[in-house]
Design a protein that fits this description.
The structure holds three protein chains of three kinds. Chain A is an alpha/beta fold. Chain A has a single domain, classed as 3-Layer(aba) Sandwich (Rossmann fold). In chain A, 41% of the residues lie in helices and 22% in strands. Chain A has helices at 11-21, 34-41, 60-69, 87-95, 108-119; strands at 2-7, 26-31, 48-52, 77-82, 100-103. In chain A, strands 2-1-3-4-5 form a five-stranded parallel β-sheet, sandwiched between helices. In chain A, helix 4 links the parallel strand 4 and strand 5. The mean pLDDT of chain A is 87. Chain B has a single domain (3-76), classed as 2-Layer Sandwich (Transcription Regulator spoIIAA). Chain B contains three helices and five strands. Chain B has a four-stranded mixed β-sheet with strand order 1-2-3-4, with helices on one face. The radius of gyration of chain C is 39 Å and the shape is elongated. In chain C, the strands form six sheets. A six-stranded mixed β-sheet of chain C has the order 16-20-21-19-18-17. A five-stranded mixed β-sheet of chain C has the order 8-10-11-13-12. In chain C, strands 22-14-15-24-23 form a five-stranded mixed β-sheet. By secondary structure, chain C is α+β, with helices and mostly antiparallel strands. Chain C has seven domains: 3-132, Four Helix Bundle (Hemerythrin (Met), subunit A); 167-275, Alpha-Beta Plaits (2-Layer Sandwich), CATH 3.30.70; 280-337, no CATH class; 345-451; 478-540; 542-640 and 679-724, Histidine kinase-like ATPase, C-terminal domain (Heat Shock Protein 90, 2-Layer Sandwich); 729-858, OB fold (Dihydrolipoamide Acetyltransferase, E2P) (Beta Barrel), CATH 2.40.50.180. Classes of the chains: A alpha/beta, B alpha/beta, C alpha+beta.
């Protein structure tokens, strides 16, 4: 069973992403912001984070850094998703510790396959 | 002479070099309603193209040289997209 | 309507409301920034979420609003009321689009021009402030492009954008769809390149001649040039140009051609079949839109030559839009019509024959995404900001996962070995790529981020039932709560038969023990049911702010229209109210508000003359009182003139001359509630339309409440409404008239009597009954309710009820027992019938009308 955490302040977007990557052998958690994400993440090991950059309270960059500070989370894969597609955002994402960067809107097929590639479980 | 500046028309002929760019630029600014005769133009330095495309003056006669087909396209269409 | 769209609309409506509130508070507060930031976030969310659906005009409009708000919060643009109004207008527009989406009546063709117009208006505010010119050193070039690694090819200055911003994505965002299709039409070569060339500003001084470099590019097929307009201040010896171009040639050829211009360009390979796949859908769409019979048939039959000739003919005839033209050109050149292959979007795998892998003869399916991921991790290892502590654990973990599919082992603690392992894996993968033939269906990557709309609404259909996570709040469909209420109501009625059954058990069954047991269980069930009832009623309680929050806007707009300055001050907004009843509360309030604005508050000049503040004030206060809510609307307007009222009432025949003389001011004011009364001669089109105070009072009464008014001339007017907070459980007495069941509130019932016909007397044209020296006027309910009068039997069943006007007797057909019901107010069409105060659901599913005694009696 793989654990995935989707972090985005828009319910619609979370629902969309969740729908795309939902599968019987995956458990998907949702969080509205970085603070909530960290709280929930501590309960079970997370294999993959899908993190939106623009969020209130704690933005994606901060969250990523926080994830990397924690022993139980630092080897998790982090995909950063951004509404902008500026170069600076991308580099900043990687500097914060992301493994991958995508810009919105995310093509559902691509996301599906990408997540499958990362988790190695069947699509 | 590659560039001949008359009262209302400037005639470009053969190859126009970067040196002519300034005169052309000033001439076009001096009075309104001036136009360009590009009939005999065969080639030019980028600076010349830049001036013409940048000031968008009236072109009284388009270049006839086939190698300037692209320039003609740029002059006649709004979207600066050219297919060769 | 799909679930995702549902969630989107609900969430976005909340965002809209929050944004509206924000805009309205900006007026009253001096510090804007926090508020503007909040509004920006709301719009940003709407924009982002809307992008998941194929509603581009809405997304575009939100985008324009977002841009303006961004400038506002960065203080690049100063906030004005004009901007505020425009933003409110935009919010309204988006809201009405949501309405259409809910009904399924949305029409993009209608939305588009509206979106464009509003977007332009919004952006006008931005450019107005940018007239001073921001970066004029910057040449306007196509957005900074970065070339991207499509597997196997590295560019000279490569730094990838995210893998999904592929070359194709970049290409199409710079050129257009029709350009892409034109390119497909122009060449069959797989060896395509895409170059972004941005000459340095001072390249002329180095003797460079960019345009000519461009024109002589090997294999050039087409280009786009960004040429800025010059002003008298421009330095013509500075190059301000930039180009993007496509052509057919090896990258190496390009690199040699551009040898002197290193650092000023980026070039990368475009796969033609990738491109073709990316635009397959657009090509199909264009053909479908054309709706040309012969072409469609030829396509279906797969007749390539036919398709070619028809396309040629169509190209020359008729005026087509650029895309259609490009598509026709494409087909005319004999290119294959892209078949509708569901595989086109799916993950594609390469079968790898690997003798380089540790396991012999392993045939592995490797996703191209795995390759992308590996490449990215590799890049991170080499990045200048690489930080072991921050990045190694996840990098190693992910790499390990990916490499296991290549059956490559590596020591993950050492960067060097990770690098080597990735390199090995990548070389295996790229060899396989080179060896495979580019075919349409398999082996191609669709990395185009533009080809979304085919899949935009389908994710919701593909979605499995997702377990929704309960965080702190639960969002529940109102229908579900209503259904729950109904069942609880039925349960309440059903439990009532238990005492009767207990009696039966004792009398007919002869079992006293059983009877006792039933009775004791009944009291348990009864208690539980009552708790259940009140619990469910509690769920439906919502704060009145739900209704109140529309009012500031309403007041603002109305006041504007009338050129009045009015401030609405609300308090007690978190007083709770039953969700169903809240609408019944809203209507009278809106009328009262309108009246205050229209007739109550005076024009600013007049107010100043009278020594009042220029801005009129309306207070809206909600306070709980037992299980009711008191709502007060107070204005400091001109008040109501009892004299005027008296005279008007007399003129309208509402009071007699005698009353005119004798009536005191207090009572005169109450005349305002009299039916058919309007204090304003010219019915203002805002609050007029025949809605007088009597209609308001009826509404309030219907909802089970009361309304009072007090007013002082020149000072102001106050309305007080008392409304029941919940739909309580009512004890009603059932009775039958003309074979139909009706109910009347048990509180009003004094007694029930059955009398002989002869006892009914007639005094002054009215039937009365004398009981214990009381004179009870009678009302034939049959006729009062509009049924036919039939010949009565010997006996009369009379329900004696008490009302504000004393005791009355209702003549009915049959008595029935009293029951507990949950009374629902009348809705919709029926709400105008003042005879009834509500309905109740009986245990057997029948609907029973509950009689409003006052109204029935008043009509007789």
């Amino acid at each position: 069973m793989k654990n995935i955490m989707i972090v985005d302040d828009a319910t619609t977007v979370r629902m969309f992403h969740k729908g795309v990557i939902s599968s019987i052998n995956r458990h998907i958690e949702e969080a509205e912001n970085g603070v909530e994400a960290l709280e929930k993440a501590l309960k079970a090991p997370i294999d993959l984070f899908l993190v939106d950059i623009n969020m209130p309270k704690m933005d994606g960059y901060r969250l990523c850094q926080e994830i990397r500070q924690r022993d139980e989370l630092r080897s998790s894969t982090v995909i950063m998703i951004s509404t902008e597609s500026a170069k600076q955002d991308e580099e900043r994402a990687y500097r914060s510790g992301a493994n991958f960067y995508m810009s919105k809107p995310v093509d559902s097929e691509q996301l599906k396959v990408l997540v499958a590639a990362i988790l190695g479980d069947a699509v | 002479m590659p560039l001949v500046l008359k009262k209302k028309v400037a005639v470009l002929c053969g190859h126009c070099e970067i040196e002519e760019a300034e005169s052309l630029f000033n001439w076009l600014q001096e009075a309104s309603g001036r136009s360009l005769n590009l009939k005999e133009l065969t080639s030019a330095h980028t600076a010349i193209y830049q001036v013409i495309l940048g000031l968008q003056p009236t072109i009284s006669i388009m270049p006839e040289d086939t190698s300037l087909f692209w320039f003609k396209e740029l002059l006649t269409h709004d979207s600066k997209e050219v297919w060769l | 309507m799909s679930e995702l769209l549902d969630v989107f609309i609900n969430e976005s409506r909340e965002n809209l409301e929050s944004a509206s509130r924000g805009l309205l508070t900006i007026h009253s507060s001096s510090s804007h920034n926090g508020i503007i930031d909040g509004i920006f976030r709301d719009i940003h969310t709407i924009k982002g979420s809307s992008d998941l659906f194929d509603i581009k005009p809405l997304t575009a409009l939100a985008h324009a609003a977002e841009d303006l708000l961004d400038c506002l919060r960065a203080s690049e643009v100063v906030y004005t009321e004009e901007i505020g109004d425009l933003l409110l207008e935009v919010l309204d527009q988006i809201s009405s689009w949501f309405d259409e989406l809910e009904l399924g009546t949305e029409n993009m063709n209608e939305w588009r021009p509206v979106s464009v117009k509003l977007s332009d208006s919004l952006r006008a505010f931005i450019s107005a402030n940018n007239a001073k010119g921001t970066s004029d050193e910057e040449a306007p070039h196509p957005d900074s492009l970065t070339s991207v690694n499509v597997i196997g090819n590295t560019t000279s200055e490569s730094s990838s954008a995210g893998p999904f911003n592929s070359t194709i994505g970049t290409f199409t965002s710079k050129f257009s769809s029709s350009s892409a299709i034109t390119l497909l039409a122009k060449t069959q070569s797989e060896n395509l390149y895409f170059i972004d060339y941005q000459p340095d500003h001072d390249c002329f001084f180095r003797g460079e001649d960019p345009f000519n470099v461009l024109i002589t590019m090997p294999g050039l097929l087409g280009f786009k040039a960004a040429v800025p307009l010059l002003t008298s201040e421009s330095d013509i010896y500075q190059s301000a140009l930039s180009f993007i171009a496509i052509g057919e040639a090896d990258i190496s050829e390009i690199d040699s051609h551009m040898a002197y211009y290193e650092g000023q360009y980026h070039v990368s390979h475009i796969s033609r079949c990738e491109l073709a796949l990316s635009f397959a859908a657009e090509i199909r769409d264009a053909v479908e839109k054309l709706a040309n019979e012969s072409l469609l048939i030829a396509i279906e039959d797969g007749e390539l030559e036919q398709i070619q000739s028809i396309a040629e003919i169509l190209q020359t005839s008729g005026n087509h839009d650029p895309i259609t033209n490009a598509v026709l050109c494409y087909l005319a050149k004999g290119n294959e019509y892209p078949a509708n292959s569901p595989q086109a979007h799916m993950q594609d795998s390469l079968k790898l024959e690997s003798n380089q892998l540790t396991d012999n003869k392993h045939v592995k399916s490797v996703s191209l995404y795995e390759v992308e991921l590996l490449q990215q991790q590799r890049k991170l290892l080499d990045a200048e900001y690489y930080n072991r502590e921050l990045m190694l654990p996840s990098l190693a973990n992910l790499t390990q996962q990916l490499l296991s599919r290549f059956a490559i082992e590596c020591d993950l603690t050492c960067e060097e070995s990770i690098r080597n392992a990735i390199d090995r894996a990548l070389s295996v993968a790229s060899t396989a790529l080179e060896n495979s033939q580019p075919e349409n269906d398999s082996n191609s990557i669709n990395v185009d981020s533009h080809n979304r709309h085919a899949s935009s609404i389908s994710p919701s259909e593909e979605m499995a039932k997702s377990e929704r996570h309960v965080v702190k709040m639960l969002k529940v469909d109102q229908e579900k709560i209503d259904y729950l209420m109904d069942i609880v109501g039925e349960l309440a009625v059903a439990k009532n038969s238990l005492p009767y059954l207990a009696k039966q058990a004792e009398e007919e069954g002869g079992s006293k023990v059983l009877s006792k047991q039933i009775k004791s269980h009944f009291s348990i069930v009864n208690r539980l049911t009552e708790s259940l009832q009140s619990a469910v009623l509690q769920i439906r309680m919502v704060p009145v702010s739900h209704v109140f929050e529309r009012y500031p806007r309403l007041v603002r707009d109305l006041a504007r229209k009338l050129n009045k300055k009015i401030e609405l001050v609300m308090s007690g907004e978190d007083t709770e109210f039953d969700k169903n009843l809240i609408e019944s509360l809203s209507e009278p309030l809106i009328h009262l508000l309108r009246n205050s604005i229209d007739h109550g508050i005076e024009l600013p000049d007049l107010r100043i003359q009278q020594g009042k503040a220029e801005k009129g004030r309306i207070d809206l206060i909600a306070t709980p009182l037992d299980d009711s809510v008191v709502i007060e609307i107070r204005d400091d307007g001109k008040g109501i003139d009892p004299e005027k009222l008296k005279i008007l009432a007399f003129q309208k025949g509402i009071i007699t001359e005698h009353q005119l003389e004798t009536i005191n001011d207090e009572d005169a004011l109450q005349l305002i509630f009299a039916p058919g009364f309007s204090t304003n001669e010219e019915v203002s089109d805002l609050s007029g339309r025949g809605v007088g105070m009597d209609a308001v009072r009826t509404m309030v009464n219907q909802a089970g409440g009361k309304i009072e008014m007090s007013s002082k001339l020149g000072i102001g007017t106050t309305f007080k409404l008392l409304l029941p907070q919940t739909m309580s459980v009512n004890h009603v007495m059932m009775f039958e008239v003309a074979d139909q069941m009706f109910g009347v509130s048990m509180d009003a019932v004094v007694e029930t009597v059955k009398v002989h016909r002869s006892e009914v007397q007639r005094i002054r044209n009215q039937n009365v009954l004398v009981i214990r020296d009381k004179l009870i006027p009678l009302c034939e309910l049959r006729s009062a309710l509009g049924f036919e009068n039939i010949e009565n039997g010997e006996e009369c069943s009379i329900l004696i009820v008490s009302s504000p006007t004393g005791e009355h007797g209702l003549v009915i057909d049959k008595f029935h027992e009293g029951i507990d019901v949950i009374q629902k107010p009348l809705e919709g069409v029926l709400s105008g019938y003042s005879h009834f105060s509500g309905t109740a659901l009986l245990g057997d599913g029948r609907v029973m009308l509950i009689v409003n005694i006052q109204e029935i009696l008043a009509c007789h």
